[in-house]
Amino acid sequence: MVKRPDLTMQRRKMKILFLTSSMETGGAERVAALLASAWADQGHDVTLMPTFSGRGDCAFPLSDSVELRFLADIASPNAGKLARLRTLRAFIRSAQPDVIISFLPHVNAAAVAAAAGLGIPVVACERTYPPLLQPPLPPFYRVARRLTYPFAAALVGQTETAAVWLRARAGRAPVATIPNPVVNPLPSNPPRLNPGDLFDPDRKLVLWAGRFEESKRADVLIDAFARIAAGASGWDVILLGDGPARAAAVERVRQHGLEDRIRLPGFAGNLAEWYARADAFVMTSSYEGFPNALLEALAQGLPSIAFDVLTGPAELADNGRRLILLPDRDHVDALADALSTLLSDEARRAELGRAALETATDYSKDRVLAMWDDLFAKVVRSGGATEAKL
Question: Beta 99-103 vs 154-157: how paired, if at all?
Answer without folding.
Answer: unpaired
